[in-house]
Design goal:
The complex is a heterodimer of chains A (385) and B (112). Helices cover 40% and strands 24% of the residues of chain A. By secondary structure, chain A is of the alpha/beta class. Chain B has one domain (2-107): Transcription Regulator spoIIAA, CATH 3.30.750.24. In chain B, β1 (2-8) and β2 (11-20) form a beta hairpin. Classes of the chains: A alpha/beta (385), B alpha/beta (112).
């Protein structure tokens, strides 16, 4: 057991018992396993419990003057709620034993005391108490972790933009639903010189806290690079080189980054290993943005990233998404897939980007049904006016 | 997810069956690390029976690729179904990991 001796309070009105106990348990006391304290009745026992707050276990007789053992049992939780009590009763005294157990006694032994049995009972009681304490500690730790996760979740959500450009030329909307408290997906929408807008969507390998940390740094690096360079390919190259510098954990982030000019509908983009975005036309048909030469960021240093450009016309809807959309699963293990995503808009192209996002999330949730969400779901939509 | 291991022409062939996602990526990593011996210099993952791989799974592939690269060991994948191959193509991983159509072709290539 542990180094500090367990403290056991023995409560009995027989004056000889103290001597007997010290005699019989002397080896355990000497080896530092237990320290014994004594009280002659319930009143004295409560006094001792108040004086010595870290007593681990009470071993108490039932019939005693001033305050009996059963009354003592009822009082103990007020003073020392975590203590384990064992009662000593007359052989066959089932009535009192039952009462004692009902009042929270952990175990009982019978008189005359069999010291071998007593030793086993003490061991078992202390082991149970130790486990109980560990469980309490784990619970406290869990509660603390849960609180920290909630804070992290709030921090993460708070760096994602919630206000989006809405002008004569365009309207934009974006949101993310993390699968756990914190996610590995992110998006960003930020103004660039010349009335242009930076659009980013990204997905970090894996989920949870490590992914969230990687996501935070990726997002900061991307925004930093984007403000300094206009070529999306150059931006991804710079972020990739920075992310690969120190990446022992082999995390990576698939990233689509575009510089969008609302006035003309020009979209310059580079794709770093991300799912190809979709352009939905006013008639409900849709096309995938052709890939640019590139790969997920953080994997390989020095990689060049190609870029490409398209032009969106009024009424066109640009849809950026993460694989949490296309790889959402239903109870039959089927994936939501690209076809279903395209079908969301095939009949009725949405009037606003907020509606577009709602339609995507609704379709994914309807499809998944009761199946638990296993990945973060993120969608960014841009409607050219 | 199940892994069965075989050796042919000094190539360690690990056949992976089922799905690799965030829930079992760690298990997959441990299983591969356990299967690959210190002196294995040629490692092939046969994905013929793999039904799904998430980004967490790709990360494990990347970790293994790096580990083997440090040891100057050859590493390749084979028999990817179309959806799995697409995952490797979209993420760009096909640029840094060699992918072969069949196990025989792969063993032939890296077994030399």
């Amino acid at each position: 057991m542990t180094q500090t001796p367990y403290k056991i309070l023995v409560v009995d009105d027989e004056p000889d018992l103290e001597h007997l106990m010290r005699q019989r348990l002397r080896r355990d006391v000497r080896s530092g396993q237990y320290t014994l304290f004594f009280a002659q009745n319930g009143v004295e026992a409560l006094e001792r419990l108040s004086e010595i707050p870290d007593i681990d276990m009470v071993l108490s007789d039932i019939n005693m003057p001033r305050m009996d053992g059963l009354t003592l049992l009822a009082q103990i939780p007020n003073i020392a709620p975590d203590i384990r009590a064992v009662v000593v009763s007359a052989y066959g005294d089932m009535k009192n034993i039952r009462t004692a157990m009902n009042r929270g006694a952990f175990d009982f032994i019978t008189k005359p005391i069999d010291f071998q049995d007593l030793r086993v009972t003490i061991e078992r009681t202390l082991k149970n108490m130790e486990e109980w304490r560990e469980a309490l500690e784990s619970r406290d730790k869990l509660v603390r972790l849960q609180n920290e996760l909630n804070v992290a979740s709030k921090m993460q959500q708070s760096i994602l933009p919630t206000e989006f450009p809405d002008s004569d030329h365009c309207t934009i909307f974006a949101n993310m639903e993390p699968a756990r408290e914190v996610g590995g997906d992110f998006f960003d929408v930020f103004p660039l010189p010349g009335g242009r807008i930076g659009l980013a969507i990204a997905d970090v390998s894996d989920k949870g806290v490590p992914a969230a940390l990687f996501m935070m740094s990726s997002r900061t690096l991307l925004k930093g690079s984007a403000i300094g360079a206009m070529d999306p390919g150059a931006v991804l190259k710079e972020v990739n080189d920075l992310l690969t510098e120190e990446n022992e954990a082999a995390m990576f982030v698939t990233t689509f980054y575009a510089v969008y000019t609302p006035e003309t509908g020009q979209v310059d983009y580079a794709n770093g290993g991300h799912n190809p975005p979709l352009v939905v036309h006013p008639d409900g048909s849709s096309t995938l943005l052709p890939g640019t030469d590139g790969m997920a960021l953080g994997v390989f240093p020095g990689v060049e990233f190609g870029q490409s450009a398209i032009s969106v016309s009024p009424g066109d809807l640009l849809v950026l998404y993460t694989d949490g959309v296309t790889e959402a699963m239903n109870a039959d293990g089927e994936e939501f897939g690209m076809d279903r995503l395209q079908a969301v808009f095939s009949d009725s192209p949405p009037a606003t980007t907020e509606e577009a996002n709602k339609a995507v999330f609704k379709a994914v949730h309807d499809f998944a049904g009761e199946t638990a969400q296993s990945d973060d779901i993120t969608c960014v939509t841009v409607l050219q006016r | 997810m199940e892994i069965s291991v075989d050796r042919a022409n000094e190539v360690l062939i690990a056949k992976v069956e089922g799905r690799i996602d965030g829930a079992n990526a760690r298990e997959f990593e441990d299983a591969l690390n356990g299967a690959i011996a210190e002196d294995d210099s040629k490692v092939l993952l046969d994905f013929g029976a793999l039904s799904y791989i998430s980004s967490a799974g790709l990360r494990v592939i990347l970790l293994i690729a790096r580990l083997l690269q440090k040891r100057n060991a050859a590493f390749a994948l084979c028999s990817l179904s179309d959806p799995i191959r697409e995952v490797f193509e979209i993420s760009g991983f096909d640029k840094i990991i060699s992918i072969h159509d069949t196990q025989a072709e792969a063993v032939d290539k890296i077994g030399q």
